[in-house]
Amino acid sequence: KDYIVEALNDIPGITCLMPQGAFYVFPNVSAIYGRAFAGRKITNSTEFIEYLLDDVNVATVPGVAFGSDDHIRLSYATSLKNIEEGVKRIKNAVARLA
Question: Domain containing 86 — which CATH number?
Answer without folding.
Answer: 3.90.1150.10
